[in-house]
Amino acid sequence: MATLHHHPLCPHSRFIRLALGEMGSDAQLTEVRAWERRPEFLALNPAGATPVLVDEQDFVVPGPGPICEYLDETRGLALGRNRLLPDDVAGRVEVRRLLDWFNGKFFDEVSSYLVTEKIYKRFMAADLGGGPPDMNTIRAARTNVRYHLRYIGFLLGRRHCLAGETLTYADLAAAAHLSCVDYLGDVPWSEDEAAKAWYARVKSRPSFRPLLQDTVPGMAPAAIYADLDF
């Protein structure tokens, strides 16, 4: 069985967990606190970031982008019409564009700030940046998430899913990042009804169930986090 080195509230890790779930692939989960920079983990990924997938032949694939490409190359064709990266060139470009948006821009402007300030810093030593959350950073992230929701709503005004008419990696990445923010109770769902309805659809998929069971010691999820009818 493959092993996924992850953190339960790492949005990039959640993205890969969703992808594995959609593909019907099991992986042993090994929790990593990346900020500890343990030598054995740095040997797998010198960048020191989660996730890292180690397949059944001990082949190491670090990072959400390389992992999703690897999964498509090794499992994608078997999914047929449910393939998460489209067959056509234009469709693949659009999925990759949106992966860059959510795994890059959304992460840099929203999910990284909130997860770091409200979760990671609780467990980090002071010399590694731990301590109380920076409320200015949290307020900035809460402001930024609003226009990301509106952008999701804009995309859904033309499509059934984010990159087209079928579920793709783009939906899973967006939902993974939003799920972390939703755990913390910081998604203003009233901002865009189309985005909320889309997230409810993705949240109801079987691949999402393990994420809804995740908890962080000392920090319970928001009341609506596991509610499919929020």
UniProtKB/TrEMBL annotation:
Transmembrane segments: none annotated. Residues 88-225 form the GST C-terminal domain. Pfam families: GST_C, GST_N_2. GO terms for molecular function: glutathione transferase activity. GO terms for biological process: glutathione metabolic process. InterPro entries: Glutathione-S-Trfase_C-like, Glutathione-S-Trfase_C_sf, Glutathione_S-Trfase, Glutathione_S-Trfase_N, GST_C, Thioredoxin-like_sf. Residues 1-79 form the GST N-terminal domain. Homodimer. This is Glutathione S-transferase.
